[in-house]
Amino acid sequence: MNTAKSTVVPEVAATTPMLERARENLRIACEKLNIHPDVIEELQAPRETLAVTLLIRMDDGTRRAFPAWRCRYNDRRGPTKGGVRFHPNVSLDGIETLAFWMTFKCAVANLPFGGGKGGVCVDSKLLSDTELERLSRTYIEAFASFIGPDRDILAPDLYTNGIVIAWMADEYSSITGHPSATAITGKPIAFGGTEGRVDATARGGYYALRHLEGSFGIDPDKATVAIQGFGNMGYHCAKLLHADGYRIIAASDSMGGVYDPDGLDPLSVMEHKHETGTLVGAKGHGKTRRISNADLLELDCDVLVPAALESQITTENCDQIKARVVLELANGPVSLEADARMTAAGRLIVPDILANSSGVTVSHLEWVQNRSGYYWDASRIRNALKTTMETETQAVWALHNEIGVSMREAAYVHGLRRTAESVEARGTKAYFE
Question: Pick the catalytic residue: 32, 81, 105, 117?
Answer without folding.
Answer: 117
